[in-house]
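seq as requested:
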Amino acid sequence: MTVQSKNKFLFSRVFIISIIFKMIMVILLVLIMIKKFELTTEQIIIPIIFIYISFTTLETISLMKISNKKKLA
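struct tokens:
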């Protein structure tokens, strides 16, 4: 299997950037929810963890499908 991009590490960099972006978005969501709806940290932590894990699972499944398509091609 050969790398199709000139930059061998492009996929890894995009993946890491997406993880950082996702974490920043979760932190911003938590701060907005706490300020706007006057929620306590205890009230918001379980839903945020559920959302984060759900998104991460879907992201991983998508990446696995992309990986399998590249191997078959």
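Residues 10-72 form one domain.
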